[in-house]
Protein 1
Amino acid sequence: MDIEANLIFVRSFRNTFGRMEKALVLGAAGQIGTELVAALRAKWGTENVIATDLRPEALEAPAFALNAMDEPALRALVQEQGITEVYHLVAMLSATGEKMPEKAWELNMLTLFHVLNLAKEGLLKRVFWPSSIAAFGPNTPALDTPQYSPMDPTTVYGISKLAGELWCQYYHQKFGVDVRSLRYPGLISWKTLPGGGTTDYAIDIFHAARKENAYTSFLSEDTRLPMMHMEDAIRATLSLMEAPSESVKVRTSYNVSGIDFTPAELAENMRRHYPDLAMSYAPDFRQAIAASWPQRMDDAEARADWGWSPRFDLSSMVDDMVAHI
Ligand code: SER
């Protein structure tokens, strides 16, 4: 047997006689999904990670077209495939959500209930669902935002994340559902573009620098936001999901911190690679959203409960983005 065949044998042996795990990723073609599917497949074996999306064309098998709003189709797939864990990554983000509030609420909440209810019925062992810095608002302490703070989100996306966090905790406390969650900061990646978020400028700027050596930021130069390299975000997700259930003490959603910077600081750091990078600033409606969010989060609980620690700092994130875009 060659090494590859050996590995597949070991994994399926473990899966058959050991953990018996099979994951389903909803929204697998999105910014997080693309990289999470690859990471899960490297760990569990390709055959044990099912990728689904509304648009499955870009996905590698095993993959299916699935609208997460379609509860019977979701249920059938979970049952037919013997799924044990769902990673629910379907959401309408902050900026798009403000343009179609009712749709955002419906999509973000109904799909969460579909998954939580399957877990409540005992069809799933574990669920991952991401929350966001958007769950916080203008009454939250902006610097070193504690895990437990006033929330009061101002966007439909943020309201759906805060409500979702509380529903996750409710399903855990009432029905014993093992649902786990992270409050992701703005996620920075080069493999797949984000869509419709307020933190997207921190990715757009790399593409614009490469193409035009100039960028017009839709956030003002001194708007500080918490951000994280996608590799750190994926590592945080896998660590949280691998932690023993009793270590996962926060059942709303964990603060996780990576880096924080302003558009001006990011541009200044990027000038190590693009010395003439020209910046201009034209804040739009996203400025008010960003201004209501934390600037830097305190993630003491994540560090203490399951050993979280980020690897990327601002310069290593910039170097990695420049190398790949
Ligand atoms: N990146 C998201 C957004 O900007 C925040 O979770 O909407």
Protein 2
Amino acid sequence: MEELEQVKQQIIHFVKECNHQKSLDLLDNLATGKMLRSKLILKIAGVSKESLELCAVVEMIHAASLLHDDVIDEADTRRGKPSVNALFDNKTAIMFGDILYSKAFTQLTQMDKKIAYTVSNAVTLLSIGEMDDVDLTDNFNSSYDKYLDMIYKKTASLIEAASRSAAIIAGLNEEKYALYGKNLGLAFQMIDDILDITQDSKTLGKPAMLDFVEGKVTIPYLLLHERLENKEKLESLYKKELSNEESNWIKQQMNETKALEDSINLAKKIGNEAINVVKDEANSETLVLIMKAMTEREF
Ligand code: FPP
Ligand code: MG
């Protein structure tokens, strides 16, 4: 069986253990994503009972966080399919998230203590990151440091934990793999923020150019804001439904000031830092491929 299919089967197995048919039915409504975290774990730790269980735990935590995130963001679509909150309601999305999340933690208690600590600590960070993300939408945030800290917590922390845990399973240098995972996660979120601007909604599986409307000043907007002489026009469009003309103006300014190009370069630079850390590892070629797949992706 293909590796990722084995992870999906492991998730089904864990949910079956909950003895709750509705949860199993709801699992069918979750569109599986790229499973980046599982790919990373399996490339580092290989396929074993331990690594597959870790993948399932991490994917269940990730799925739970997205179920809650779609309620928080009032998002109707997830990965090109209707989100659970849209298909059913907010209550169902929250409660199903709680079930996946707590079952994942039950399984974590059965795992290596260091892995359990690493993953559970990352979940605290990701929850704080989500709150920071929401709080940063109160006002136009022009601080790169705040943005970086928020995306580290919201996204990179769980990828860092997945990478570190996989290294623990494989008996590899965990600090190296943690740093690789952290930078991979940071680059991943920056690319996500760039794709929000460069891709259409069909490719994204969700509405395009929504971040700024929602009050999220992501990396391309941060650089644009820094570089615009007249910042007022950009500030006036903040948290507004954008007309075609307005979104085209933003994109044009991002091209002229090279804010977009430099955001891509920054993501790639962080990606290269990730690669540098593990360049002497036996599996470095695969780790480079994972990074490339991530920074060159279109959705
Ligand atoms: C998606 O980001 C959201 C996250 C990566 C983290 C969400 C975390 C929580 C809701 C904390 C609760 C955690 C658990 C385990 C229950 P995004 O909104 O930038 O990306 P999107 O465009 O894919 O929605
Ligand atoms: Mg969201």
